[in-house]
Amino acid sequence: MDLFYMTAHELHGKLTAGEISAGELCRAFLDRLGSVEERLQAFITVTEEMALKQAGEVDKRIAAGEKLPPLAGIPIAVKDNMCLDGVRTTCASKILYNFVPPYSATVVEKIKAAGMVILGKTNMDEFAMGSSTENSGFQITSNPWDTERVPGGSSGGSAVSVAAGETVLALGSDTGGSIRQPASLCGVVGMKPTYGAVSRYGLVAFASSLDQIGPFARDVADCAQLLNVITGHDPLDSTSAPGEKTDYTAFLNRDIKGLKVGVPREYMGEGIDPGVRKEIEEALKVLSSLGADIEEATLPHSRYAIPVYYLIATAEASSNLARYDGVKYGLRDEDAQDIVDMYMKSRSRGFGTEVKRRIMLGTYALSAGYYDAYYLKALKARTLIKQDFDRALDRFDVLVCPTSPGTAFRKGEKTDDPLQMYLSDITTISVNLAGIPGISVPAGFSGGLPVGMQIMGRPFDEGTLIRVAHAFEGSAGHRGRFPSL
Ligand code: GLN
Question: Is residue 426 part of a domain?
Fold first, then answer.
């Protein structure tokens, strides 16, 4: 098999056996990236020099006879909304085109400490607002399975970089589906951990009560390894959960006999593409053949999830994005006549259409006279949605559904209709509203395009998601098919 489609655990074996050096591995991935990037446009910045230096450090450790940690020397890509000291961090926005952070995000410090090799920063929807990566202020990323189609979003660049063999692992962020949906559309594994499980220090905020960082991987075992690296309490993030660290690899290779799996009926009916539904029904048969107990579940307030999300997320975004005024960071309009003019011109020029739309929606929802009717009402409905999950997860160990209602759509297909775009997250958004973990695993193909299955679980029970996902992956036989580029 091609080196660039191998998993981290396979490559770790090659590194420790001395079959390849970390430097050679890094070079091979940089070459691969160079050969496909023109078609895919997954990266905003490639950090070649830094990557080769980090790989060199790993080779020194190997030469010194050190026992290599599991992800040392393994290439990784980072979504361009996480700070990497000294490297441009743009959020794919013109307003941050020149922003170079003076520090690294906690997750970036953690992957560095694990000896991972950072290949670069990936493309995304501007400020993570979108489901197709078409809202990037810089470039449009292509889906490697069909370059006429979108990779999903907002972490489209990270999903593509893993799916196309430009890197082995990647980090993304997920506010309403931005890791799971592109993972599904690109045929890779992607997880949104529980709110608070991963530090967000150094992640550029979009909607602070929903944002969470998580892994993209080629298989579930790699996902568990990367989760081990990035989880854990961080005093620098006040929303980071205290507690002992879990070893998620301990949940691999366990059976799922007698496990209770609920299938929310609201997520299998209307709006779900029949080809996608068929693959998920097949996947449920696989789970059942492994001994899981499958039953219908219900999340009765699901139909409020999209409106609730678009009130809460936009309200928080309008507040978070107030800081981009041309004073401290990024773009400043030089022709402005006075300070108010400078704020207005810098923001008008710096933000793209979708970001402006959300700032206006959020400002409206928070304004005096509307606050109670919209924002407060949305918060109450959010509680009802959360209670639906509490009840369902009292009865079931996990819930399973399609990650996305359809497969990868054509570029431009939904750009003129924001509502259609918003509906692509119908099965992922409530997971963020409830703060619970969710993982997307490859579950077959429909019309030649990947389909993902989402597994949702109890707060801080990522272990069970890994367990179910790994058992499914081992039996379903969907691995081993790669995009031809
Ligand atoms: N697609 C959703 C949105 O546009 C979710 C994005 C995300 O998870 N960052 O807001």
Answer: yes
Closest-CA residue to 217 (of 463, 453, 472, 6):
6
User: 129 in ligand 1 pocket by Cβ < 6 Å?
Assistant: yes
Q: Which atom of ligand 1 is nearest to the CA of 421?
A: 1
Going from the Cα of 72 to the center of ligand 1, the distance in angstroms, rounded, reads 31
| 18-70 pLDDT, tens digit each | 999 999 999 999 999 999 999 999 999 999 999 999 999 999 999 999 999 99
- Does the reported pTM lie above 0.70? yes
Is 182 domain-assigned?
yes
Q: What spacing in Å lies between the alpha carbon of 423 and ligand 1's midpoint? A: 11
| Sequence letter at residue 242 | P
Q: Are 155 and 423 in contact (CB under 8 A)?
A: no
Kindly report, residue by residue over 93-128, the tens digit of the pLDDT: 999 999 999 999 999 999 999 999 999 999 999 999
| Residue of the CA atom closest to atom 5 of ligand 1 | 176
Q: Is residue 336 part of a domain?
A: no
For the segment 437-464, the average pLDDT, to the nearest whole number, is: 98
pLDDT for residue 429: 98
> Which atom of ligand 1 is least distant from the CA of 175?
8
CATH number at residue 113: 3.90.1300.10
SS (H, E, C) 161-194: HHHCCCCCEEEEEECCCCCHHHHHHHCCEEEECC
Q: Determine whether the shortest distance from the Cβ of 128 to ligand 1 is under 6 A.
A: yes
